[in-house]
Amino acid sequence: MNISKPPGALSLGKKIAVLGVTALMALSTASPAMADEPVPNSGNLTEVALGTTTSVTEYDPNCVEQVKDIAQKQGIADPNLDICEFTITTTVSAGKTPTLADIWSDEGLSATAKSQLAQSVLAGNRIVTRNWIQQVNGVAYLQTHRGRAYADGNRAWSTNSYRGVSGYHACNTDYIVGGAINMQYCGGWFTGNKLVQQHQFTVSAYFEGFPVTVSRAMTTHIGVGGRVWKTWRYL
Q: Over the stretch 100-125, which tens digit does the pLDDT of each residue have?
């Protein structure tokens, strides 16, 4: 996992859709309460309740400005802003706390990992799993940011192995028609023991044959107690 701070950059949009988010919920079960933690001071974050999906639809202001500028130059009084509309959807699983039976029956864990996890469970350390996915759906594209993280009340982690397990973090373009998406950043960093994972990208499309380009960032923040926050911004 990239532990450095992300560079600046990004761009565009229209509606957001959710593909396969229900698969995330299949792994979830109720997880025990862990020590509460304060809302992280990392910008305008919104907490996502465990086991839920949230969606927000809006117009990218940078895109709208570019489209209106093109329309004015082309003598178009009421331009269609469809290419500027997008929806961002975030789904977070309820999480899972592995039992000894789960650990020993997990074929994906090495013998060493099973031993380390079993020792943690026997010592009373509770580890929860958080599967999450963010998707941005525009008029002709779908961009996905997803991952799996763990938390034990003292630390949150993902791609770096800890207590015998590691998660994953991925960013990808599901499809785009009549435009282009440029990946700017897909990585993460730690704020204390809390984990931040971010995806920055630039979207380019066309309005009346003229290019319109915007940049965006999707961010997921996983707290040490397993709470999850999301944020979205224009770059």
A: 887 788 776 778 778 877 877 777 77
Longest Cα pair distance anywhere in the chain, in angstroms?
Answer: 72
Residue 219 token pair: 């961010």
- Residue 109: what pLDDT? 73
Of 235, 231, 17, whose CA–CA distance to 142 is shortest?
Answer: 17
Tokens of 136: 């941005």
pLDDT per position as a tens digit, 36-67:
465 555 557 788 999 999 999 999 999 999 99
In DSSP notation, 70-134 reads HHHHHT-SS---GGGEEEEEEEE-------HHHHHH-TTS-HHHHHHHHHHHHTT---EEEEEEE
> What was the pLDDT predicted at 139?
87
Distances (CA, A) of 104 to 35, 54, 95, 110, 165: 27, 35, 19, 10, 13
Tokens found for residue 212: 């319109």
Which distant-in-sequence residues (6+ apart) come within 8 Å of 118 by Cβ? 100, 103, 104
Q: What is the DSSP letter of 13?
A: -
- Give the predicted TM-score (pTM) of the model: 0.75
